[in-house]
Amino acid sequence: MKRILYFTFLLLFLTGCKKGEVDLVFGEQPEERMGEKLTELRSLLTSSEYGWKAKLLVEKPSAYSFYFKFDDGKSCTMISDFSNTTSSTPNTSTYRVMWAMNASLLFDTFNYITMLQEPSGSYGGTAPNGYLSDIEFEYVRSSGDSLIMTGKKYKVPLLMVKATQAESESYLAGNLTESIEKTKQFFNDNKNSYVSIDSAGHSYKVAVDLLSQDKTVSLSTITPEKTVKSVSNLFVFDLNGFELGTDSVGFLGVTFKTAVWEGNKLLMVDDKGAKYEIKNDTQPIIPLNKAIGVKYSSLLSPYLTYYPGTSAEGLTILKRFHEGLASGATGYIFNSGYISFAWDNFNKRITLNGFSSQNGGSSGWTTTIVYNFEFDETAETYTLTKRSNASGGYTAPILDQMDNFLLNSKFKLEYHVEDGVTYGKMIGVDRPNVVITFLLR
Amino acid sequence: MKNIIYSILGLSFVISFSSCNKEENLNVDMSSYNYDDFEKLPIDDYIYNNLTKPFNVEVVYRFDRSHTDIGKNISPPKIEQVQPAVDMVLDGFIRVYDKVAGPTFIKTYTPKQFVLFGSHAYNSNGTVTLGTADGGRRVVLYDINNINPNSSADISRRLQTIHHEFTHILNQIVAIPSSFRTVTTDYVADWTASSNTAEEAQALGFISQYSRSSFPEDFAETVAHLLIKGQVYYDLYASGSTEDGSAKLKLKQSIVEDYFKQFLNIDFKELQYEVHKVLVEQYADESQLFITALKNNNIESIGVDMDGGSEYSIYGKSAAFDQVWQEVKQSFASTQNGGFKPGKFSIVFQSSTRMQIQAEFPNSSGSTTYLSWYDFDLTYNSDGTVSFKYIDEGKTGTGNVPYDNGRFIKEGWQPLLDYFQNNIFTPEWVSPEIVGFGNLMKFGGLNVEGEVDNYIYGPVTLK
Fold first, then answer.
1. Hey, what domains does chain A have and what are their CATH numbers?
2. Is A164 in a helix, a strand, or coil?
3. Do B74 and A29 count as a contact with CB atoms less than 8 A apart?
4. How far apart are CA A222 and CA A207, in angstroms?
């Protein structure tokens, strides 16, 4: 009995004094795990001997490409396609890898990437948010030769890929500028650029428009059913063309990834590696009656300017206005003016403006007539009815012939290409002798 | 018995197990993750040698969210903009106090941390914060990327903010004298309200619209304006106010001076002068120069009383000009219009391009004093000097008697008129190192170009 008691007390003694080790849920002390993560990111950044190519998608929305070279001295040399200066002149600032909930990369002094984050609008963004971009990035993951980070404030993705020696040298020599200029020039020279895509037994011409200011490339085509189909993608410039910013926006079954130069040809490349040469058509791919009000906002006839393609009867209508301005047909003498048609597809309205000026166009008076229109999809003709009579300004008397034509004749809209310039043409249906060429705006 | 033993045992087990269930705090050592352990740049050494080591002041220029509100949009500074910012703080603020108030003062009271940001701090609603000071310890300077050391206006604006904020810090150590609170009582709840116009603030005796927000702001604004905009600006502002407002502004200045002298043992006038010197010498600030005041038509006159002015016996006079004055006396004595003697005269600036000598001449008994006027065209030379050219527009008759007197006695005054006509002058405030800090911008003079010892000076009256 006593033994049992002693034994029990001994047991009590042992259990009562046993102190347990703290259970570490993740196996290591927190500071050790932090240290590992920090070291991982630090060594990753400097591990790429020739730096990193990066894509930053800002919330504005827009996209920019970067080249980063991180060195052990905690400085970072940068190139960006943000502007001509940033793409040609490498700039060095400092960076830090620090812990803030996760291993984070912080560009802690001003550099090109800060121009997007700068809140004031001095770099083209909008106060108080700039381009809605970040300079603090959280380490998400890395795989192979790429590194993925996310902005702390706006959650903008920063995608980095290791650069090769040749790329590094090219970036630091400022060659990105040339590449940007070459690509921009291509689209400037080839206004009607397109790629051919075969899909579901139909060969589509897909218009490729590069809006380099907005960093947007838009693809659009006209289906056999005569409807317009289009997508827009953000893109960034790289050393050999451009790269689409967002993943997998498919168009007619094709997902484009990049555009690359091969000699003087610019080729779109899809996710399977297939290449599509960007060619130039004689006139825009999307018919004018689909593009007006979308790509082009208006048709314009500037003061005393008559464009090729205009018929004799069309010329009479234009001259009635332009020559009437100076002759005093309105009751007043003017020395400048114009006619413009603005399309409002949503409300199915066309606004005709007749502007007149006595000081060469710097200020003046506008007469406005608004028409409702019906568009016949098969015949592709416009039928106009008057919505509101001429109001304001002084040019109603010399817009009479134009008004008469619009109300009494259906018309078609077509392109007219002359000497590399694309105009818009109004062709009478009931009065086929009337053809008027306008400037597209 | 056994039952009792067992139940005691049972209880002991329960107690022992529960007592063993001890929670331990995890001992985490974060000391090796100091995020400030970056590699030093040349600018870091510069800051260490010029600010941290001598004054124990830290400058944080690398971006750190924790130094600003998390909700604000703000950018880091450009590295090359850090040094101009540091120099501005050092020269325009710390070294000035260091010199005037002594190293102990500045080491004790200076904010210990300056945080630099490249942009302004934008709030999400679009408003902007210009500057902040936290708890007497940290001063945050914004918009460093746009500091322009070649623009004295830009530097002055920023230094004014720093001196304003530092005054708040001083006020936390020594409270603002209660006498200051009662000078003006027209404080308003919302100083940005449209009813609080600049004119109204001036008429009521406030140095700025912001001054009206509260008396501590008023105090800080008064100090910052006196230091950066200068004494002449302050005096002109006061004379542009109402009589009551002017008196209140003067009173506020004397309370400020008294505060600095009594509680901090600082000669405020000396501080003003040192700040002025930095602005002029480092940042080519011309706003407070005598010649700028002349160009702006702010100077009424310089009074010269060669025989009666006490300043000449205290601070000395120019031997070269005294020679001219003796010639004037001789020519008075030798003219046929005997009996008259040269008296005191004023150099009156009627406009920015017209100067008039208004000279008194008493008769032999001294019973009557007459006045003579002589007009001069004033031209500014490109090297900062001025020239005078005598003109006689032939004004005569009623209201122009001093001109007639002038023609009558011109022969007597001729050596003085020649002195103005034949010399090129540099207009200057007389340095307080000569006339004392109490007379800062009270005496002005004309120095003959190229001759250090040839000058004419006297007390200045502002318009």
1. 30-173 (2.40.128.640), 178-286 (2.40.128), 289-440 (2.40.128)
2. coil
3. no
4. 9
Picking from A204-213, A376-385, B15-24, which range would have the lowest pLDDT averaged per residue?
B15-24
- What is the 3 state secondary structure string of chain B? CHHHHHHHHHHHHHHHHHHHCCCCCCCCCCHHHCCCCCCCCHHHHHHHHHHHHHHCCEEECCCCHHHCCCCCECCCCCHHHHHHHHHHHHHHHHHHHHHHHCHHHHHHHCCCEEEECCCCEECCCCCEECEEEECCCEEEECCHHHCCCCCHHHHHHHHHHHHHHHHHHHHHHCCCCHHHHCCCCCCCCCCCCCCCCHHHHHHHCCCCCHHHHCHHHHHHHHHHHHHHHCHHHHHHHHHCCCHHHHHHHHHHHHHHHHHHHHHHCCCHHHHHHHHHHHHHHHHCCCCCCHHHHHHCCCEEEEEECCCCCHHHHHHCCCHHHHHHHHHHHHHHHHCCCCCCCCCCEEEEEEECCEEEEEEEEECCCCCCEEEEEEEEEEEECCCCCEEEEEECCCCCCCCCHHHHHHHHHHHHHHHHHHHHHHCEEEEEECCHHHHCHHHCCCEEEEEECCCCCCEEEEEEEEC
The answer to whether B72 and B121 have CB atoms below 8 angstroms apart is yes
Check A22 against B32: CB less than 8 A apart. no
Closest residue by Cα to residue A260 from A233, A230, A235, A231? A235
The pLDDT tens digits for B169-199 are 889 889 999 999 989 888 888 887 888 889 9
If DSSP codes are grouped into helix, strand and coil, which group holds residue A23?
Answer: coil
When CB atoms are compared, the residue of B16, B26, B61 closest to A15 is: B16
d(CA A318, CA A268): 43
Which residue of chain B is at minimal alpha-carbon distance from A92?
B79
Q: Is B79 on the interface with A (CB under 8 A)?
A: yes
Chain A: residue whose CA lies nearest to B61 = A109
Q: Over chain A, what is the mean pLDDT?
A: 89
Where do we find the tokens 């936290």? B134
Number of A–B residue contacts, CB under 8 Å: 115
Residue A163 per-residue DSSP state: P
Residue of chain A minimizing CA distance to B65: A136
Q: Which of A5, A17, A128 sits opposite B126 (nearest CB)?
A: A128
Note whether A118 contacts B119, CB cutoff 8 Å: yes
pLDDT band at A322 (very low <50, low <70, confident <90, very high): very high
Q: Which of B389, B227, B420, B378 is nearest to B291 (CA)?
A: B378
Kindly state whether B8 is in contact with chain A, defined as any CB-CB distance less than 8 angstroms. Answer: no
ipTM value:
0.75
Q: Residues of A78-101 as b/e, b for ≥16 C-beta within 10 angstroms?
A: bbbbbeeebbeeebebbbbbbbee
d(CA B48, CA B59): 9
List all residues 6 or more positions away from B97 whose beta carbon is below 8 Å from its beta carbon.
B105, B106, B110, B266, B271
Which tens digit of pLDDT belongs to each residue from A149-203? 999 999 999 999 999 999 999 999 999 999 999 999 999 888 889 999 998 888 9
Binary contact (A120, B19; C-beta < 8 A): no
Candidates B20, B76, B78; nearest CB to A135:
B76
Domains of chain B: 42-283 (3.40.390.70), 290-462 (no CATH)
Query: Percent of chain A scored above 90 by pLDDT?
Result: 63
Compute the Cα dihedral for B175, B180, B184, B185 and give only its sign: positive
Q: Do B35 and A96 touch (CB under 8 A)?
A: yes
CA distance A72 to A151: 23
CB contact under 8 A, B122 and A128: yes
Q: Is B24 on the interface with A (CB under 8 A)?
A: yes
